[in-house]
Amino acid sequence: MAYKITDECIECGACAAGCPVEAIAEGEGKYVIDADTCIDCGACAGNCPVEAIVQD
Description:
Order of helices and strands: EHEEHE
Largest sheet: 2 strands, antiparallel
CATH architecture: 2-Layer Sandwich
Distance between the termini: 7 Å
Number of helices: 2
Radius of gyration: 10 Å
Number of strands: 4
C-alpha cells in the first residue's frame, strides 16, 4: 500500500468521499485505508485538508 493515514487525521471524511474504489472507512480515532481495495491513485491525499495521508 502506497498511502497511509497518520494520527493527524481529524476524521472529516474528505478522503473517503474522494476515494474512487471506496477503500477508506472510519476507524477508531482516524480513518483507515483497506490495502486490498486501494489502487494507489492518491486521490485521498489530495483531498485531505490536514495532510494526514502520506506515502508509505
